Amino acid sequence: MNNRDYNVLFNLHTVSGIVISVGLFVIFFAGSFSFFRDEIVNWERNEATANSQGMHIDFDEALDSIQKNYNLNGRDIQISKTFDERRVNVSLGASKDTLATEENKAGAYFYLDPLTYKSYSYIKSYTLGEFLYRLHFFAQIYYPVGYYLSGFVALFFLFAIVTGVLVHWDKIVSNFYVFRPWAKLKTLWTDAHTGLGMIGLPFQFVYAVTGAFFMLQILLVAPSVFTIYDGDQAQLYEDLEFTDKPVAFKNNPLESNFSINELVSKTKEKWNGFEVSEVHIFNYGDKNMHVAVEGALGYDNQLTAPGKAIYKISPQLLVFEKDPAKQASYLDQVKNLLYRLHYGDYGGYLLKIASFILGIISCLVIVSGVMIWLVARDKKNMPEKKRKFNNAVVRIYLAICLSMFPVTALAFIAVKIYPNEGQSFIYSFYFISWLLFSTFLFLKKNLRFMTCFCLILGGILAIFIPLLDGFVSGNWVWSILLKPESNLYVVDLLWLLIAITSLFAAYKSAKMNTAKNFL
Amino acid sequence: MPANKKYLTNSNTQRFAKISAGILGGYLVTIALHLALATWLPRPEVLITSTYSGFIMWVVLMILPFLAKNGWKVWGIYILLLFAFALAIYFGKSLNPLSQ
Prior knowledge:
The complex is a heterodimer of chains A (519) and B (100). With 519 residues, chain A is an alpha+beta fold. Helix content of chain A is 58%, strand content 9%. Chain A has 15 helices and eight strands. Chain A has helices spanning 3-34, 37-45, 59-67, 128-135, 145-168, 185-227, 233-239, 260-270, 330-343, 348-377, 384-417, 423-444, 447-473, 477-481, 489-516; strands at 77-80, 88-92, 108-112, 119-120, 274-282, 290-297, 306-312, 317-322. Chain A has an eight-stranded antiparallel β-sheet with strand order 4-3-2-1-5-6-7-8, covered by helices on one side. In chain A, strand 3 (108-112) and strand 4 (119-120) form a beta hairpin. The two termini of chain A are 35 Å apart. Chain B contains three helices and no strands. In chain B, helix 1 (12-40) runs parallel beside helix 3 (71-95). Classes of the chains: A alpha+beta (519), B mainly alpha (100). The A-B interface holds A 3-5, 7-12, 14, 155, 158-159, 162-163, 166, 209-210, 212-213, 216-217, 219-220, 223-224, 227-229, 235-236, 239-241, 330-331, 334-335, 338, 376-377 and B 1-4, 7-8, 27, 31, 34-35, 38-39, 43-45, 47-52, 54-56, 58-60, 62-63, 66-67, 89, 93, 98.
């Protein structure tokens, strides 16, 4: 590569990287915990789940219990499970009966516990797991600003990845084996940045592309709708098989009895190992009532082929079926692979742990990149004012990024002591302590203190998390390890692992500091 | 060692041309190409492919203007491409209408 191109690409990499750095760090840090979103939710509520892909509930009982509060006639009803929690999502459409009361013309959305048949609103169901999951696409910022912001961070992350690889291309193999932590500070950060960046490259590339798609899909959808589909958005989603064709409402009461459980078990008998993730009822109680049973085979069998059966109730007929055991169409492969790759939920805990570690490695790549930016500009020949300014920028960046670790650990402790407090408690606890910690660290004016403080405090708080789970919920790590069918131990073990790693890192860095004293 | 300034763009209009060509022009060319393909090839397959190819292509088209000497020239090339793809969309739509 010639000198000009190298320097141009280098500059693009630096500028795009430094602009997105804090946002990207928050995304990767919160995103790494999101791999364990469902485990965190269950851990908070102390509700063990079956740890399975599908729903194993009594649908008829569930509908009866919903009927106590809502008149279901003429509505479309969706009962689905998106996360591995005990509660299932229930979505009620407005009644299609033109004579329905105002009350029945309103839709509803809530969570239903299939053991107690209690229902919960979204705000009341709010958990730290959900909070961290949503933080990783900035959903707390006014909708849709946060979504688009995180989408553009992902897009420019892809930009930084491509320019970074091009800059590094000539030395990509030889430099991988170079690590010179003791040479000088600049080479420590550079070697960490390029070495860890190379290790995480495929992972980061996949997350940048899929993340950009999830948050910026409107940029693809809108032009297609307006040019190809002449404004008919429904046609596009039907073409891509995201939605079903609407089923006409006949406004004639259904006379025969029906059982959703029967249809579900019928479907499960048809396809061995079928896990039901959604039951969609069209026109409840109407002559033209239909029921769609959707799901997939276990991911260890079939990664990208969902299955679906649609039944008409009267007379009972199978009107549509999509066999999950058949080779998936290209459409299904792409649609499902984008999600599976991003969620990392198809390979058990080994994959989740590997993804978590790669996510944290990506955080380190970001921090080391910011440090290179600082050290490269911290030269004697730079004007003093400029150097002070650069230093302050990096201090703000790192104070925000690094304080996330102790703040997150503290939030886990808070929700264990005050469970089921809902959204406002988690919002105010997390954001206020984050603000306090980062202000304190910024004012300390010492990057080394900042790092050690976060590593040690975070590590100590992390030890308390499994202990507290024992004291408050009676789940001592050793006792729940004996019940491998429950996944409650995952969060405790994860935090133990984090505690050991961060305290070890703090110890090592303190030792290195006294030996060389080079910061 | 920050990037050597002598190789970077100094003029503000050039910088504007390159950034706008990369972000806006790159986006328009990416979308136009995918829409043109969608009117001639199997529609759902092309559209679903754009979920990943679209963002990768956009980023590549974002980098190219900076490697060029003149950002306006890149805008010119992008606009020519846009015209070509627009023609393809126009004829593709009338020859292969949406089947109901």
